[in-house]
Design a protein that fits this description.
alpha/beta, five-stranded mixed β-sheet
């Protein structure tokens, strides 16, 4: 969580990326994001994040290594829109920008709104 360029909270969350259930992934991601968002002094105004694999310009999880065992038909329906669904359903539709992994966590959100309460999430594997 970043407010006015100051890091208020940064954490790692382990989860079982081999789980084939997209709801499991959604729930783990949301739990971590809400725990981090709670460190902000106000509401989340934008979300910037990164993920391994291919992420579209519209923050869709085209193919992310975070979800390798989700069946293809379910992946397309549930995982491709996962990041946008989280922003819409869990954070009141705030702007979200997810790009390929790297040291980019909140950069896109900060650039989008220039200041304020910004939360970043970086999702990937170390294997």
């Amino acid at each position: 969580a970043v407010k006015d360029n100051e890091v208020l909270e940064s954490m790692e969350t382990e989860w079982d990326v081999t789980n084939p259930d997209p709801q499991y992934h959604y729930d783990v991601i949301v739990k971590a994001m809400k725990a981090t968002a709670a460190k902000l002094p106000g509401t989340v105004e934008a979300i910037g994040g990164s993920a391994t694999g291919a992420v579209s310009a519209d923050s869709e999880a085209t193919w992310c290594d975070c979800f390798p065992n989700v069946p293809p038909d379910v992946y397309k329906q549930k995982v491709v829109p996962i990041f946008n669904n989280i922003a819409k359903k869990e954070f009141n539709g705030v702007p979200i920008k997810v790009i390929n992994d790297g040291e980019v966590t909140a950069l896109a959100a900060v650039q989008k709104i220039h200041a304020g309460n910004v939360m970043g999430i970086s999702m990937g594997s170390s294997e």
